[in-house]
Fold each of these.
Amino acid sequence: MAGLGTARRVARELRRDIASARERDPAARGVRGAEILAVWPGVHALVAHRVAHALHGAGVPLLPRSIAYVSRALTGIEIHPAAQIGQGLLIDHGTGVVIGETAVIGEDVTLYQGVTLGGTGFATGKRHPTVGDRAVIGSGAKLLGPIEVGRDAKIGANSVVITDVPDNATVVGNPGHVVRVDGRRPEGPDADWIHLPDPVADAIRELSTRLRELEAAVTELSGGQRPPGEVRELRPVRGRHPAGG
């Protein structure tokens, strides 16, 4: 009975992995389940991790790390056998993804290539991030230390996050800072995956406006003898949507 129950659980987890790929990976739409199971590295890494994690929990020496090592060599995804991963995780592409020993990942989370759930320093105990359900971590993002990322949070590509993130928040930048909570951004334009807020561009825009005002004031004080210098306004890029929409 135990063997039958284990087989059913494994089959259920595989179906969930395949369904997650179809729902959240555009490249998997219309692809047969057998093909996803055969050639999707994120699925391979999860299957290997479940085996390694079970063996690690049973106290088996060497074998869990050996499985993780082989999985990393084959998929480019490194997951410590002790990491706790919920169901429905999608690792899209996955090359360069690193999930540390004490990391905890909730259900239906999405990780893109190059994501690191890493630790800081040489502290013992809980030293890796905890990621809530349905969070989305963008390409190249680094989440460091025993921080907590809330449910339905979004972490922008290449962000470096070292502090807790609230539920339903969007974080961008280095160091990462919250630009949107519960669908409302505290300041500036709306955020999405294609047009995330750019703090550097915002700062340059403010400086450009201030410079224009100062030059106008200098011109007025000099009796109109010195025309203000030309300052080009920063405008959103026009044309075809970079996401193909």
Amino acid sequence: MESFLISIAGNIAAGKSTLTKALETRTGGKIVSFLEQVDYVKKHGYLEKYYKAVSAYDRLKGTKLNGNDAGEFLKVKKEAEYWGYKIQETYFLSRLLDLGVLNELLREGQSVVQDRSIYEDQIFTKNSNAYEYITDEDYRKYQDLFKLVMHNKPNPDLIIYLESDVEALKSRIVERSRGEESELAKPENAYLSNLNDLYRPWIMKCGYPYVIIDTEAIDFRTTEGLECVVEGIIQAVPETERLFK
């Protein structure tokens, strides 16, 4: 029996995990949910250190410097570059391991819905390079590594992109109260906005079938909203209809 890999994409707090689990329930297990494994990142506080480092660098970018400030500026910049590459490298390796597990499930005929694919790493890495959290040299190194290791890996049959306004994302971050994300919810923090600017062109150029869901217009936590998502999936990949019967 043909199996399908559906990847849920979207900015931080867009609702990826919620939709992933909802689709598993809706299909009665015909699609199993696969949540990204980030225990190592959380256990070692990498995310909190990353967000603090890049936010500190962003705050310094627009300030005037005198001769006494140069050393501090370079120190903060170096810290941002260290964590910028460290977090991306760690996530990439973790998602690469996940991809091996996913591949086995697909080979066994099990369809899977995944709450962020390794392909989205390209968005975060591009953003980090654009805002100087990753050096040009490390960015080129990452791109070369991605091309090398992703050869012959399973591709998503469909990507569902959850599009959200930045203010809605910040509101959800506050509601779910994850300490490491607190910096992102601050009014002056542009991190989520910068990512949003990259997501739309990425999804339209990704080369895979995709569906765009406006999370402010469609609440997939409700039966009606979830059915709208299901209709979009079937329309994009008709063969998936059997999974929802």
Amino acid sequence: MLFKKRLLIIDSSDSTRTILFKELLSTLPDIDIIACATAKEALTACKRFEFEIITTGLTLPDMNSHDMISEIRKHGKNVDTPIFVVSGDTPTHVVDVENDDANAITAYFDKAEGHKALVNFIIDFLNRDSTLNARILYVDQSATSAAITTSILDKNNFSYTHVKDGENALNELRMDFNNNQKCNYDVLITDLTLTRNMSGFELIQAVRNELNYDYLTLPILLMTVEPGDDEKTDFTGIFGAGTNDFITKPITEEKLIERVINLINIKRQNEALTA
């Protein structure tokens, strides 16, 4: 994979950080782990890196943990990163999605269960969140564009189905639902320019309105051309149609994979919280 998974541990206790670091690294040798003792250190790390998971204790020496989490959410790299708060005062592991905290804190973990249980909890979440098992539906009629995009997906070991038009994409999604009784695709990538019968916008609208797949059930990435010097990006049209995110051509491997992973994480977090 182009991107190596990173985990951020925030805890004021030297012994706790050391224990978690060693146990996680022994189980997940291929993951990068950064351990911070203060909110200041953590915020600096979050500005530099995107993390797969962030864990934090409630008590930090320089900032209230909830204020720190709010600051983390302000930075683009970790707006959607799962954040687990380790606490001895919380009665439940998973945040109620109706709670105001739901957009900031993904889950609580009772520290009374011990370090081993927390490590297992993190490992289970990472396995459930694995992008290697993701399924992508890719829609593009351009042979050149498709060759570039599929080569990037192949290089990064993503499983995908490529179709050339919106009608076949909708048929594939309907067949997938009939076979699985749910949307088994994790991300839909579609080019804006498809056929005269159905544009990328119209495909997205059909997914949202006819199939009733919302932004969490099937995240959508729109591929479009860079606007000319005298043109502006149609943000209203892009997001009004129901797109989660968009990328302009010519695409790069780093930008494409970054956006795909972000959208997969959106779907995985929703599945984790509604399981």
